[in-house]
Design a protein that fits this description.
Blueprint: E1 2-7, E2 10-15, E3 33-39, E4 42-48, E5 55-61, E6 91-95, E7 98-102, E8 115-121, E9 124-130, E10 137-145, E11 153-154, E12 173-182, E13 185-186, E14 190-191, E15 195-196, E16 203-206, E17 211-213, E18 217-219, E19 221-224, E20 232-237, E21 247-249, E22 255-258, E23 262-270, E24 273-282, E25 285-288, E26 293-296, E27 307-310, E28 313-317, E29 331-336, E30 345-353, E31 363-371, E32 374-382, E33 391-399, E34 402-407, E35 423-431, E36 434-440, E37 447-452, E38 463-469, E39 478-488, E40 491-494, E41 498-501, E42 507-514, E43 519-525
Parallel strand pairs: 17-24
Antiparallel strand pairs: 1-2, 3-4, 4-5, 6-7, 8-9, 10-11, 10-12, 12-13, 12-14, 12-15, 16-19, 18-22, 20-23, 21-22, 23-24, 25-41, 26-29, 27-28, 28-39, 29-38, 30-35, 30-39, 31-32, 31-38, 32-33, 33-34, 35-36, 36-37, 39-40, 42-43
Amino acid sequence: MAMVREVSQHAAETWNGGTEGDGENLNTAADVWYRIVKKDTTIEGYYSKDGETFNKIGQVDGAFLGDDFKIALAAGSNAVSPVPFVTYSGLTVTSGETVKNIALTQENTLPALTSASCALNGKTLSVSAEGQSAGTELAVLWEKADSKDGPWTPADSLTGTTPAVGNSLAGKFIRAKVYQKKGSALSAPVTTAAVQTEAKHTVTINTPAESVKAGENATFTATASDENASIAWSVCDAFTGQATTAATINESTGVLSGVSSGLVLVTATTGSASASTLVKIEKEAYGLADGVTIAHRASADSSASGIVPGESGLSMAHWHFGLYQQQTPGHVVTFELPDGVDAEHFSIDVKANAPQGSGYWGASGLYLFKDADNYISVERKSRSNTSNEREVMALVREVNQSAAEYWDDGNVDTAPSMAHIDNVWYRLSRDGSTITAAYSTDGTTFKTISSNTDTSFLDGERTIALATATGNNDSHPVTTFSDLSITSNGETKAFALTRKVELAAPTSVSVTDDEESQTLHASANTDSANGSISYVW
């Protein structure tokens, strides 16, 4: 224990026992009584552990206080966590024979408001009150009922003094219990008269279509309980609730246009009422044919949208970069020569449709492919910063990232340009150690570009690749490969790059209810390879 005398931020401590270390240790004392005795200008300090016997700490000169002083209680600590607390009570002041008890706290009571009312403006409630005390705030509990006579129950969705009324309270009677509040003190409530919210409107979609084919339209109509209400139509993805590319709808006429396969939610809305129906947009879906795999996908194609199987063939967008020498591969798909094809004696043709050209110094090609750094190919290569400005055919031979280009007519500068020629057929032939690249602009007459006999690094190789590339990511022209055929042993066979995908309905579908967590769980199985299950509740 200590007495502290501080004048203008200069303090002196007088310790019990004379020095800080010699005084009585009060660490285990739960209760301690403090006493200050003022005798003229002398101030004495005492303490007690039982409130009866007081021990003097010392005395100091208090003349600097004069007659204009106050009594203060304070607490402080260097501790940050946990923060200790001290509770003061039993304060008395003794002067002569007079002893006064000084209350440090008092019960805080507030009178009830004299009146209160609530109002509904559109969908927003508000309260007003009379008789509010200074320094208080209004606190409101909202109640709802089906009639103005009750019974009344709490309206949990309404909080504060100006809450918005949701659709769940449409047609309900609403009233407020209004309190005034200050700190923890709360007055008795005043209950307002009730107001009624607008009745809930309804809308019904009439005989909706369950499916619409891509490329076709269907007209939706709806009936609203408010005959004068206008109906607005919208469509979204049924699984995510977000915007969809599978269909569009005219907001006012309700004409739905199918675009691509998917499941959509068509919604009719009028005021606060809405109704929805599921519609399947049907379009034949295609995937990669059996045996055709994606060997490389351009890293910049984050949406994985650059390789698209379709009815007309396999479309491959040109993304940064390609297979040439040290470049990072762009889009590359591969497949093996079918059984029965002589890997040393064959010819393979493919049609490449590229109405937008090959991009910024881009390329597309047909490859006898060991890996991204070892191949021989026939390629349509852009020789310009602008797609479809000058595009030249070439045979490319690359071994361990070292490539050589053999140009049509032997000269890149004078070779015929394929710019603005939409369809070019690529041909790659092998006859023993000789691999020949050729091309055609009509699919019938082929022109040889070059042959290469230094091909031992590809002996026995049966992997064929199709690839696209471009020098930057400013634009992504698309090349669609189709009509692929392989000739070997005097026989020509078509080879499919894509196939129609047909999905069977899920099996073992079930829904369970977890009453403890109040959640529903759905499960199902699919027999489709690489298929996934999606749910619409």
